[in-house]
Amino acid sequence: MSAAAAEHPCDGEPRTLLEEADRLMEQLPGYRVEIIGGVLTVTPPPDPDHADVLTDVMIPFLAAGLHGTETRVHQGIGLWLPDGPEDYAIPDLAVVDADFREHLIEFKCCDPAIFRLVLEVTSSNYKNDLRNKVIAYARAKVPVYVIVDRKHTRVHILTNPIADEYDNHEIYAPGQQITLPDSIGAEVKLDVTELLTAARAVTD
């Protein structure tokens, strides 16, 4: 869902989107609040299948040694977007440079330059991951975007961001294996069936 700017009860001044985002995060603990393309969106807490597949997908990244001295693997780390003055996203999972703390920009979000990979597991607002975030992450020049698409039971791998899209977009079905670009810092192989086993297809 989206939320427009609200007025302060005392002075009548409209809240900025960041102020509104901060208010919503306080009122709705566990919800993910983002501003993408100037639109404030609120995503409910993950359902058990979403959380389970996210845990499963972390395992090969950790096994490859990506949570070490050169890179770190994080859930829910903020990515400051270049789209607008207040835009930011919170990917489900990200591989970032180990010195990410030195690259905070605003609202506890990091410079997109330190992100080597972002990953989203789709939920009820799957269109946001498949459309709006493709544009946002491409404009932020995130090199690799992985989408675990529970709605359509497949995995998308997007690489080589150009302008507001990715030049390469490959789609994998259950039974296939994925080898991610070694630019993320190590060789990581993903089994599509394993990623999707815990995640039943969801509908709106």
Keywords:
single chain, about 200 residues, alpha+beta, 6-stranded mixed sheet, 4-stranded mixed sheet, 4 helices, globular, disordered N terminus
The parts where pLDDT drops under 50 for at least 5 residues are: 1-9
Structural class: alpha+beta
Q: How much is the average pLDDT?
A: 89
Portion in beta strands: 25-35%
Shape: globular
Q: How far is the N terminus from the C terminus?
A: 13 Å
Q: What spatial order of strands do you see in the largest sheet? A: 3-6-9-10-11-12
Quantity of strands, as a count:
14
Report the radius of gyration as a whole number of Å. 17 Å
The proportion of residues forming helix, as a percent range, comes to 10-25%
Series of secondary-structure elements, N-terminal to C-terminal: HEEHEEEEEEEHEEEEEH
Largest sheet: 6 strands, mixed
Number of helices: 4
Explained architecture:
The chain has 204 residues and is α+β, with helices and mostly antiparallel strands. It has four helices and 14 strands. Strands 3-6-9-10-11-12 form a six-stranded mixed β-sheet. The longest helix has 16 residues, at 48-63. Residues 1-9 have low confidence and may be disordered.
SSE diagram, text form:
Elements: H1 17-27, E1 32-36, E2 39-43, H2 48-63, E3 71-75, E4 78-80, E5 88-89, E6 93-97, E7 104-106, E8 109-110, E9 115-121, H3 126-139, E10 144-149, E11 154-162, E12 165-172, E13 177-179, E14 189-191, H4 192-197
Parallel strand pairs: 4-8, 9-10
Antiparallel strand pairs: 1-2, 3-6, 4-5, 6-9, 7-8, 10-11, 11-12, 13-14
